[in-house]
Specification:
Blueprint: H1 3-24, H2 34-47, E1 61-64, H3 81-93, H4 101-108, H5 111-116, H6 118-130, H7 135-139, H8 142-148, H9 164-175, E2 179-187, H10 188-199, E3 206-218, E4 221-232, H11 238-246, E5 253-257, H12 264-271, E6 278-283, H13 299-307, E7 310-313, H14 314-317
Parallel strand pairs: 1-2, 1-5, 2-3, 5-6, 6-7
Antiparallel strand pairs: 3-4
Helix pairs in contact: 3-6
Length: 324
Amino acid sequence: MSIRRIALTILAMLAWATSAHAQTDPLPSWNETPAKQAIVAFVAKVTQAGGSDFVPPPERIAVFDMDGTLVPERPIPLALIPILADIRDAVARTPDLGNRPAVAALLKGDHAGLHALGEQGLNDLIAAVTDGKTTEQIIANVRSLIANRPNEIFGVSYGRAIYRPMQELLAYLQANGFTSWICSGSPLLITRELAPEMFGIPPERVMGSNVRTRLDERDGKTVLVFAGHVEHLNDQDGKPVTINRTIGARPLFVAGNEGGRGDIAMMRWSKDRSGPSFQLLIDHDDAEREFAYAEPDDFSLNAARRYGFQIVSIKQDWKVVIGK
């Protein structure tokens, strides 16, 4: 056999091996780092029938935060997209709304100031814009607005700006008998509209912040109308309360992110369950491909190290951030 033919044969074998690995690798967008190895090892041990850490499928509950965990929360949170077009009209109708810090920051384009207000600021915006509208009116254009608005950072629409590694993780857990839920600080009604198409999670498995509603009658039909007040802010200590009320069990697997301190409480609650558990905290440390930001006191990162949560570095652990 000629040297050229030997070389071609070797190249073909390498190509086949690479292809075969890609087909069997459940997390191909993850680098071969300790984070990926820890995820795979955990799933293997809790699904091994007869093993000491085996967890029956009904107890394989996975809970994911949304903003900053499944999708980028910058330059603006996903749930703000549907209300951006309405905020100026709302202020024109009710000028006092312009005095709310979150509304003022948004109108000035002060994204840093808006992020500093956290989930409370986001929900103040939602409450301001939805006041007096029916639930049907609010969700009518949510999907089309998300699908059609381009994300200026990632070169795709907001509806497609999803972390590919986390999409793979959702699919991997589902293939291994896990039931995945979303527990977000974003408004429940909007998150429910987006979850099925973007994440493959049905609306009944979505938890979020609630804006107060009341039953009203319009044109002879009963409707639910938003009352302009946040009833439950689903963030920080509020998340375990919501999960318990909705599911009635501590999650086996929890994923969140640093940046707003919002996910540590549900991670600790999961960690304190009886038996094995896994907590994943995404570290936004990739200024080149995404964003680099952290809490001033590194609260979430310090808590992850203290309680043994798995920190995932976007820069080090992900081959790809957003799929095209």
